[in-house]
Design a protein that fits this description.
single chain, about 400 residues, alpha/beta, Rossmann fold, Dihydrodipicolinate Reductase, domain 2, 9-stranded mixed β-sheet, 7-stranded parallel β-sheet, about 35% helix, about 30% strand, globular, binds NADPH dihydro-nicotinamide-adenine-dinucleotide phosphate, Sacchrp_dh_NADP-bd, Sacchrp_dh-like_C, NAD(P)-bd_dom_sf, Saccharopine dehydrogenase family protein
Length: about 400
């Protein structure tokens, strides 16, 4: 069917590319372009001859001009940004210059500000409309599948959704005292930030990890989870009519939280540059260099993830609750694509989002979040490509 340019060759990109190769009727040619070309070459070596034709290139995705040159040369139908949130805007600019569709999994975050929100990317809406190209934002698991679950629940189960609780549980164990399951810098910035939730049209702010709850997750058992700010709260607050409250909870183990507290207390999670023996160092980037590469955790991670949403609303005037979730096994993912489940549960939806744009099912000029499209084809593809979902019509609620 067409050509895809994937930017990045880390944990998430590796899974998305494995799945694109399996889906080579849609992705006939794949260009993997990233900062460290050897990582793209290693993927090509592993996957060559298994489906799609694979090319590799070195690119600095902070440089719009370099991206435009690469895109003019390769001529992709869609660009899938699996680098870091810092690169979202430079890649969107290059897509505008070359009239190419754009897909990502995380909203823009300035490097020097611990803040992420959609406003920067939503501001591109008119320019994408005028150029006749689609930007599909946030097609990972959360954001991503959680937004599709919300659109599906609204379409098939409710007349009105009033409350959504998104629960992200990782019951996996990698055996290290401290490691992050996706890019350490982005992960630590996210979990050390103040929390917040959406209520009656306003943000309610909390201290980091201030709100704690328990939940008994299928496949992992009872876990402690903490309320975090998360990007899909912002888009679902706008896109789900009648919504009154949206919260996001993520599970963390005791060891992770203790290490994080110590690292914070000694200043190693700071994004403020310091001068060390004449060289400028950003502490959190130095810490990233010390920590295990998330892409290397696959072989040693055991256990399962359980991620999904609990909905509360009304159908035919009657109050109703409903839950949708997926359980994913770290070792099963490793057997299939050589990665742990966090990369898997993000990389598969990235491939699915790109496939829906590529095949025209989710193609509409402008900038959109996943919940703004028809959820049905996406839900079918989740079952088909390794992330089957489960419905619960009598879910335990979170107080
Ligand atoms: P990794 O750090 O493993 O991979 C990032 C890749 O991007 C690396 O190959 C890196 O190159 C490359 N890269 C970074 N900067 C540049 C640049 N300037 N130019 C070109 N390439 C660059 O991260 P993950 O795979 O864990 O995460 C990828 C994305 O997925 C992130 O944006 C993350 O926030 C998002 N994510 C989304 C989730 C969701 O559910 N929605 C969940 C988990 C992650 P190099 O090898 O040189 O470092």
């Amino acid at each position: 069917m067409g050509k895809v340019l994937v930017i990045g060759a880390g944990g998430v990109a590796s899974v998305a590319i494995h799945k694109m190769v399996q889906n080579s009727d849609v992705f006939e040619e794949i260009m993997i372009a990233t900062r460290t070309k050897s990582k793209a070459d290693a993927l090509k070596e592993k996957l060559d001859g298994k489906g799609a034709v694979i090319h590799t290139a070195q690119v600095d995705a902070d440089q719009t001009g370099d991206l435009i040159d690469l895109m003019m040369d390769f001529g992709p139908d869609v660009v899938v940004n699996l680098a870091l949130p810092y690169q979202d805007l430079t890649i969107m600019e290059a897509c505008l210059a070359t009239k190419t569709d754009y897909v990502d999994t995380a909203n823009y975050e300035p490097k020097d500000e611990a803040k992420f929100e959609y406003s920067w990317q939503w501001n591109y809406k008119k320019r994408f409309e005028a150029a006749g190209i689609t930007a599909l934002l946030g097609t990972g698991f959360d954001p991503g599948v959680t937004g599709v679950f919300s659109a599906y629940a609204l379409k098939h189960q409710f007349d009105e959704i009033n409350e959504i609780d998104i629960l992200d549980c990782n019951g996996g164990d990698h055996g290290y005292p401290f490691a992050t399951n996706f890019n350490p810098e982005i992960n630590i910035r996210e979990v050390s930030a103040p929390g917040s939730y959406w209520e009656n049209g306003n943000w309610v702010h909390t201290k980091p990890m201030e709100i704690k709850r328990h939940y008994d997750f299928e496949g992992t058992g009872v876990k402690e989870m903490y309320l975090l700010h998360h990007e899909e709260l912002e888009s679902l607050g706008v896109n789900i009519p009648g919504i009154k409250r949206i919260r996001f909870f993520m599970t963390f183990g005791e060891s992770y939280l203790t290490h994080l507290k110590v690292l914070e207390n000694v200043g190693l999670t700071s994004i403020e540059p310091i001068n060390y023996h004449g060289q400028e160092i950003i502490p959190i980037q130095f810490l990233k260099a010390l920590l295990p590469d998330p892409a290397s955790l696959g072989a040693r991670t055991i256990g399962k993830t359980n991620i999904g949403c609990i909905f509360k609303g009304k159908k035919d005037g009657i109050e109703k609750t409903y839950r949708l979730y997926n359980v994913c096994d770290h070792q099963e993912c490793y057997k299939e694509v050589g990665s742990q489940a966090i990369s898997y549960t993000t990389g598969v939806p990235a491939m699915i989002g790109a496939a829906l744009v590529m095949t025209g099912k989710w193609k509409k000029p402008g900038v959109y979040n996943v919940e703004e499209f028809d959820p049905d084809p996406y839900m079918d593809l989740l079952n088909q490509w390794g992330l089957p979902w489960v419905e619960d019509f009598n879910p335990t609620l979170v107080d």
